[in-house]
Write a structure and sequence with these properties.
Blueprint lengths: L1 H30 L4 E17 L2 E16 L17 H15 L15 H29 L1 E11 L18 H5 L6 E5 L2 E2 L3 H8 L7 E7 L2 E7 L2 E6 L17 E6 L2 E8 L6 H17 L1 H12 L13 H12 L5 H23 L7 H21 L14 H24 L6
Antiparallel strand pairs: 1-2, 3-10, 4-5, 4-6, 6-7, 8-9
Helix pairs in contact: 1-3, 1-8, 1-9, 3-6, 3-9, 3-10, 6-9, 7-11, 8-9, 8-11
Keywords: Hydrolase, Membrane, Metalloprotease, Protease, Transmembrane, Transmembrane helix, Zinc
Organism: Xylanimonas protaetiae
Subcellular location: Membrane
Length: 432
């Protein structure tokens, strides 16, 4: 049941991300007077729809995206222009123009999208990606606020003696350094050897390399700071598995690891992360996602190789919606508290929204970035014309001429999506 709930959470999260992306386009378009005829989540046959005002809102059969139909996305052919060629793409360009013009009602030419100024076009087309960026920030902040159950610097227990290399019971006559120094369960380690220790990892890093040396350690006990002196020993300890059983090699020998040993174990507690670190985390997400987009063709090829060979799938490989769902199922099935699983789900959805933000900025149709580039080109032409004193100013950019690029991109994206779906079924990415 928890796995089903986890998948539903991600499905709803993905649908919400797509829906709000389209809201980011629709709201400014309506604000600027453009008639929005449809707001749809999904593609294919319509499952449900309702018309409110002049807009039809609905759900379609395949929830793999969404769209907002804004009247007049493509301007008519420039005055005096003649159709060139009789090929497939020439027909596509002509049909796209005709369909766009047919959507405009008589007397509402001023409400066509192509008549908007360049700044307004940019606001409309960037509204969707910016909405996904906003969601990524909100979800990351929520993840930080909830936090995760993790090891803290508060002492849960103190070892009675130094462990043996074989995993056998240790000798009480050889007390652990923490016990000899007087550390107690409940103490919170504030600093070690003069270094502040706000996390368990920081404490371990401070202890490392101090074997055989007397070191001051400050702990908070009953609301007061107490300074103790510990002398870690260089101990060889048995490597144990999750159940605490010593791990052996092929010959049956117990595997060991050596290092400075103090004799403390941490308590587990939920710890929120500082919200001031959210911008840095969002920046790292953006950089990582941008790198993934740049290397997207190579990663799709790697996924194909892994799917049809014995090569293991890379943990940082790209995934389809199916892969995201499987990851959500893994999260839902984790041996962790509900809040921990919710936090990880939020982190996963934040990454997804960052991917939608970056991916939609690719400057090619049919993605939002393609319309942004056309709007910038149109605005640049008009600015040059103003500078040169040319009148009348150039008309809207002939976006329909880019439809062949849009068709090629659609085929590439569709093929990549299907390939990744197959890969996520046959050889899914293992994150956990």
């Amino acid at each position: 049941m928890s796995i089903v709930v986890g998948i539903l959470v991600v499905v709803i999260g993905v649908a919400l991300s797509i829906a709000l992306h389209e809201v980011g386009h629709m709201v400014p378009a309506k604000r600027f007077g453009v008639r929005v005829s449809q707001y749809m989540i999904g593609f294919g046959p319509t499952l449900w729809s309702r018309t409110k005002g002049e807009t039809e809102y609905g759900l379609k059969a395949f929830p793999l995206g969404g769209f907002v139909r804004m009247v007049g996305m493509m301007p008519p052919a420039p005055a005096g222009a003649r159709r060139t060629g009789r090929g497939f793409f020439s027909q596509v360009i002509a049909d796209t123009r005709d369909q766009s013009v047919e959507e405009i009602r008589p007397g509402e030419e001023h409400r066509a999208f192509y008549n908007l100024s360049t700044p307004k076009k940019l606001v409309v087309m960037l509204g969707g990606p910016v909405m996904n960026l906003f969601l990524a920030v909100v979800m990351t902040a929520s993840f930080f606020a909830i936090g995760l159950t993790q090891q803290t610097t508060t002492v849960a227990s103190v070892s009675a003696c130094v462990p043996t290399a074989t995993g056998a019971p240790c000798d009480a006559a050889d007390p652990a350094p923490a016990t000899a120094a007087g550390l107690q369960p409940g103490d919170r380690v504030v600093s070690y050897d003069g270094q502040s220790t706000t996390t368990w990892r920081a404490l371990l890093e401070a202890i490392d390399g101090t074997a055989g040396r007397a070191v001051p350690v400050v702990v908070e006990r009953a609301g007061q700071e107490v300074t103790l002196t510990v002398t870690p020993v260089d101990a060889e300890r048995a490597v144990v598995d999750a159940a605490g059983t010593p791990v052996t090699d092929a010959d049956g020998n117990v595997q060991t690891v050596s290092g400075a040993f103090l004799g403390l174990s941490p308590t587990l507690a939920r710890q929120s992360l500082p919200l001031r670190e959210v911008p840095g985390e969002v920046g790292r997400m953006f950089t990582g996602t941008a790198e993934a987009v740049v290397t997207f063709p190579a990663k799709v090829w790697q996924a194909a190789q892994s799917t049809f060979s014995d090569t293991p799938r890379s943990a940082d490989g790209v995934m389809s919606v199916i892969g995201v769902g499987r990851t959500a199922a893994d999260v839902a099935g984790m041996d962790a508290s509900v809040l921990d699983r919710v936090a990880i789900m939020l982190s996963l959805l934040a990454s997804l929204n960052m991917a939608l933000f970056v991916f939609n900025l690719i400057p090619l149709l049919p993605l939002d970035g393609g319309h942004v580039v056309n709007a910038l080109y149109e605005g640049a032409k008009r600015q040059v014309a103003r500078f040169r004193g040319v009148h009348p100013l150039p008309g809207p950019a002939d976006v329909a001429r880019m439809m062949p690029v849009a068709y090629v991109m659609f085929v590439v994206l569709l093929g990549s999506g299907v390939l990744l779906m197959v890969a996520d079924v046959v050889d899914p990415v293992k994150i956990f």
